[in-house]
Design goal:
- This protein is of the alpha+beta class.
- The chain has one domain: Sulfite Oxidase, Chain A, domain 2.
- β1 and β2 form a beta hairpin.
- The two termini are about 35 Å apart.
- Bound molecules: the ligand Nc1nc2c(c(=O)[nH]1)N[C@H]1C(S)=C(S)[C@@H](COP(=O)(O)O)O[C@H]1N2 and molybdenum atom.
Length: about 300
């Protein structure tokens, strides 16, 4: 069971939090120097391998149920009650039911995964998640013949989520994956960051992380998982299908209708760092390209 998919970001296995911060500061300094001498490649690599700080990861968020400003989730998400927490599992599964979260994930291996995270808005971070492979959870509940997709829902609590008053999206926030994407070993359900419980603004107590897709696919605070035959409803896709595809794989060659996806701004990279190139499938091409073999990625964006 000791699987590890740390990819090329496995720099800091078992490195304590303080050491992460130190490395980050050292590397940020180095990046500045290298940038100044115009060695762009070295600079990009340095940024690539350095996780963002706890402060950055937990204070610059998208979680529209708590407001659309980047600081709204950190300011407002404290009101979300995350314990007790249940997840309803239904659809084409052998063991449907309303599970207590602790019971659903009891005994499953929690791994550290240092992943690139790329928002469709063209900013990015590197985040050291702690999480469980979604495949382990799906195997536990028993996926039935005929299931081709997995649908996810975020909890909908108007009393605790002030953003639900505004019709920005057709609430609750919903997302979906193809079953093979959901079963891929890179796909995790995160319960922690930097070895600490995941904060509310990042999707406590459990959220999806699909590192090769734009961030909006990585739905937060999940209260329902449904195995379906057909492609499920996905909030952003439904709100604006021209701008947000169901797949939403990170692709520097397929621009958003209103902006380029060729480059990204690494949050916290520093004044002289500049933008960095966006990588095909967010850098996970070797692991996931085969899922989309033969598909026109400009048509299935
Ligand atoms: N329920 C819910 N999940 C969500 C969102 C949201 O508004 N509501 N925002 C998405 C978007 S656009 C991004 S970029 C990521 C941000 O995750 P982070 O705040 O942990 O960086 O969460 C995604 N999951
Ligand atoms: Mo996003």
């Amino acid at each position: 069971m000791a699987r590890r998919w740390t990819n090329d970001l496995s720099i800091a296995d078992a490195t304590p939090y303080a050491a992460y911060i130190n490395r980050r500061q050292i590397m940020a300094g180095a990046a500045g120097l290298i940038g100044a001498t115009a060695l762009g490649l070295g600079r990009a690599n340095a940024q690539e391998l350095v996780p963002n700080s706890w402060e950055e990861i937990t204070s610059y968020n998208n979680y529209y149920e708590f407001g659309t400003g980047k600081e709204d989730p950190a300011n407002n998400a404290g009101s979300l009650t995350t314990s007790p927490w249940t997840i309803e599992v239904d659809g084409l599964v052998d063991n449907p039911g309303i599970y207590d979260l602790a019971e659903l994930i009891d005994g499953l291996e929690v791994e550290e995964r240092i992943y690139r995270f790329r928002c469709v808005e063209a900013w990015s971070m590197v985040i050291p998640w702690n999480g469980i492979e979604l495949a382990d959870i799906l195997t536990r509940v028993g996926v039935q013949e005929g299931a081709n997709h997995v649908a996810f829902e975020t909890v909908m609590r108007p009393d605790e989520m002030p953003g639900l008053r505004y019709p920005v999206l057709d609430w609750p926030y919903r997302e979906g994956l193809r079953l093979d994407e959901a079963m891929h070993p890179l796909t995790i359900m995160a319960t922690g960051i930097y070895g600490r419980p995941i904060p509310n603004q990042n999707g406590a107590p459990i959220r999806l992380v699909v590192p090769w897709k734009y961030g909006f696919k990585s739905i937060k605070s999940i209260s329902r998982i449904t195995l379906t035959r057909d492609e499920p409803f996905a909030s952003w896709n439904r709100a604006n299908p021209r701008e947000y595809g169901f797949y939403s794989n990170v692709n520097p060659e397929v621009d958003h209708p209103r902006w380029s996806q060729a480059t990204e701004r690494r949050v916290g990279a520093g004044l002289f760092a500049g933008r960095q190139p966006t990588l095909m499938f967010n850098g996970y091409e070797a692991e996931v390209a085969s899922l989309y073999e033969g598909m026109d990625l400009a048509a299935y964006y």
